[in-house]
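ARCHIVE CARD
Drawer: 12
Card no.: 0347
Subject: one protein chain, sequence and derived structure
Cross-reference: see card 0346
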Amino acid sequence: MRNGEEEDDEKVKKEAIEIMGSFQVLPHLVVFDLNYTLWPFYCAIRSKREMPSIYPHAKGILRALKDKGVDVAIASRSPTADIAKAFLDKLGITSMFVAQEIFLSWTHKTVHFQRINKRTGVPFNSMLFFDDENRNIQAVSKMGVTSILVDNGVNLEAFKQGLTEFSKK
């Protein structure tokens, strides 16, 4: 990683920690989709040999959550779990996630969340979820998970929106 990227991640992490500090209650678990949420591409059409990129605020937000003791997980409907996992390794973020549910499904991620719940013991109403597909947001919201639709990947604005929505519960 280049020095400038590390500085940017640190700056985003600091800002994300400040944002979290303004909320009395934080989620116990924050769940992220991968494609067009943590990274700006669809990994099924990529090669494992490529070096993936991540959205500019994503790594800083992940690091801030870990620093504040908030667990993070992945819920992805990618048909290429091997490529997704290889990219997580290359980005150096695999170990950050307490659960990685990466598999093709037609259930709009409800099965993903059932598995995450079973693995972590975190109730649905203590989770916050970021995804770029409205159908997933709708389905997972019905389970009691605070769900935020992202347009251009997860960023500090979406993160703050998510914490704001979560705090209204």
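Annotation on reverse: The mean pLDDT is 94. Residues 33 and 131 are 5 Å apart (CA to CA).
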